[in-house]
Amino acid sequence: MRGPFTITATALALALLSPGLAQAEEAADAGEILVTGRGLEETPGTPAYSTVEIERKEILSAPSGRIEDVLTSVAGFQQFRRSDSRSSNPSAQGVTLRALGGNASSRALVLLDGVPMADPFFGYIPLPALAPDRLGRIRVTRGGGSGPFGSGALSGTIELDSAATEDLGLVSGSIIANQRGETEASASIAPQLGSGFVVASGRWDRGKGFWTTPGDERVPASARARFDSWSASLRAIAPLAGDVELQARGLVFGDRRSLRFRGADSATEGQDASLRLVGRGGWKFDALVYVQARNFSNVVVSSTRFVPVLDQYKTPATGIGGKFELRPPLGEAHVLRLGTDWRRTSGTMQEAAISAFTGKIAARRRAGGHNTVLGFFAEDDWTLGPVVLTGGLRGDRTVIAGGYFTERSPDGLAVSDERYPDRADWTLSYRAGVLLHASETVALRASAYSGLRLPTLNELYRPFTVFPVVTLANAALRNEKLEGYEAGVDFTASPGLKLSLTAFENRIENAIANVTIAANLRQRRNLPEIRSRGIEAAAHFATGPVRLDATLAWNDAKVHGSGISGDLDGMRPAQTPSLAASATLAFVPADRWSMALTLRHVGAQFEDDLQTDVLPAATTLDALVEIPLGARASLILRGENLFDEKIITRNSGGSLDLGVPRTLWAGFRWGL
Asked: Which helix (H) or strand (E) holds 282?
């Protein structure tokens, strides 16, 4: 039902664009400027917050070809688990920044062309659908609060901008394979239509996967981490007037994986559509509407009897929303942002518990509800010579409603029928910063901010099991609230030498975590606080054909617990390393030639909240080589984990999962 609905919405959006594309051809004949395909330009106060930009050339140089690998180059970026998106359960693909993790839901807001990408039910990010080859730029704001971004920007915001026709060329593609016979194929066509353009692209990754189970733990039922994911995107940009452009985007994707045992399969599918109207005249504006349809299924296999014990056969979810931002003309000294945004998420979990002894259904469960956020924001950047002052307020009306959990016996008798009370609240948040250009080479910055995140439908209503540990839901969870501050310095001696250092302290009140309440039993609870303080450092050096980029993030993150969570007081959040570092050395001897080595280190971290199981530190080396073959084609050689470091991604009482082993890729990239 949802797939055809969203595809119809995309078709309607493109139909609305048709007159604009016709006008685009007329505009081109008149010699007018081409559209950009992006939102409004960043404001003067943006650099007052800790901001990192990744350009397209760096995006394409990731040795794994995956978006999580690209983002790992940003100090402080972290997934809930170390597994990549080929070998993890999709519901564990939460992302965060600044060691504010310990939770599989995302505490960082991820936007693709302004649209939130988190799953409406679970809160994870569909990483395989975010193909790096379709992106033109990434901007990461660490901290910074909710501000004009919206609810969910707790630890920061990751903005992904799609590539334009000048980035892609008319026709481009790549195909690459590794020693296990796994393949990655992508292609795009991006014709310019007058002053506008259309981009159609697709990607397909598939393979038998590697062994996540160590050799001495394998049983006849053990299986490789098989994966098969695809995505297709259609995007059209057209001018409606000299300074107004219309942007339409549609995205469909599917992702199937197996984990640990035969039959332990998961599947994700999604369809997104959005319309965006951007005006760059005297009264600048950005208006966006979107709809998302997602579904998730998962089969849990017993780790003792190796038979299915739970079939989460359907979790349909929908996200709809929009945003409007207005920038009135107030002169060169001020950039005022006024706006509102709204998002509603709804979904239903449907699953069947299966007896490990008889193979028959033991119970049927359903759970779900809907969350709504309506926000209003105002923010002003004031430029006073070398000083930029920025500050704003935001108000959010949050509603958690329609929550329920039911369980029935195989013959349909009610075992449990819980209906949870509706809740609503108003939350005021702020952010403010100052940027001082002390000289042509030195910029000083400082900021303070707050933010908000609602508990996801998954956290509120869906229990789950990772044998032998059962984790209960909690319909009484409160909103997470962030307060933080930071100070930093940016040193730019020349375009080839840039240094950056940031010190921060961030605090999440009511942080949601899986808290141990009995042996092999946990429940999602609000912790009094998670506090993280630390430093982030970055260096860029380029001379001639050589470039070095390095980042480092160190933090001291601690849980403040009391009552049922008293045993956690002073401990580190689960899945949170204290140190992460990355360095890339690149050599470009000639046009279209490139060679790069990337060294990464992630410190030790704990699997669980009680710090009983450790995931040891890991250091990996990756490589990428591109060699031109004629005018339009290149040979691509990639290597992941070249030293075959043992990466432990899960440790449950000594039962381990492993990350990607040494993997060597070779293939071709071409373009017209």
From this structure: none
| 223 neighbors 258 (Cβ within 8 angstroms) | yes
**Greatest CA separation found in the chain?**
76
Please tell me the distance from the alpha carbon of residue 531 to that of residue 559, in angstroms, as a whole number. 7
Q: How far apart are CA 245 and CA 450, in angstroms?
A: 33
Helix (H, G, I), strand (E, B) or coil at 522: strand
Bond before 148 cis per omega within 30 degrees: no
CB atoms within 10 A of CB 532: 25
Under 8 Å between Cβ of 191 and 197: yes
Distance CA 186, CA 131 (A): 9
Contacts of 583 (CB under 8 A, 6+ apart): 548, 549, 550, 551, 598, 599
pLDDT of the residue at 274: 97
- Measured between alpha carbons, how far is 373 from 453 in angstroms, rounded to an integer? 10
308: which strand partners?
Answer: 301
CA dist., res. 386 & res. 660, Å (int): 48
- pLDDT value at 556 more than 70: yes
Measure the CA–CA gap between 315 and 294, rounded to whole angstroms.
8
Question: Judging by DSSP bridges, how do beta strands 108-112 and 156-162 pair with one another?
Answer: parallel
- Among 70-74, 134-138, 383-387, 532-536, the minimum mean pLDDT is found in 70-74
pLDDT band at 566 (very low <50, low <70, confident <90, very high): confident
How far from 321 is each of 117, 343, 344, 368, CA to CA, in Å? 12, 4, 6, 19
Q: Are 294 and 317 in contact (CB under 8 A)?
A: yes
> How many whole angstroms separate alpha carbon 417 and alpha carbon 423?
19
Closest CA to 145 of 278, 67, 73, 48: 48
The residue written with tokens 């597994």 in the block is: 83
- pLDDT mean across residues, the chain: 91
Between CA 210 and CA 601 the distance in angstroms is 22
pTM to 2 decimal places = 0.93
390-447 pLDDT per residue, tens: 999 999 999 999 999 999 999 999 999 999 999 999 999 999 999 999 999 999 999 9
In the chain, pLDDT over 70 holds for what percent of residues?
Answer: 94
Report the distance separating Cα 617 and Cα 322, nearest Å: 42
Note whether 53 and 75 are within 8 A (CB): no
Q: How far apart are CA 47 and CA 67, in angstroms?
A: 24
Look up residue 78 and give its two tokens. 């972290």
* Coil, strand or helix at 7: helix
Question: What is the amino acid identity at position 241?
Answer: A
Q: Running DSSP on this structure, what letter comes out for residue 133?
A: G
Burial class (CB in 10 A: 0-12, 13-18, 19+), 652: middle
User: Tokens for 235?
Assistant: 């995007």
What is the amino acid identity at position 104? A
CB neighbour burial string for 67-102, b if at least 16 within 10 angstroms, e if fewer: bbbbbbbbbbbbbbbbbbbbbbbbbbbbbbbbbbbb
Q: What pLDDT score was predicted for residue 517?
A: 85
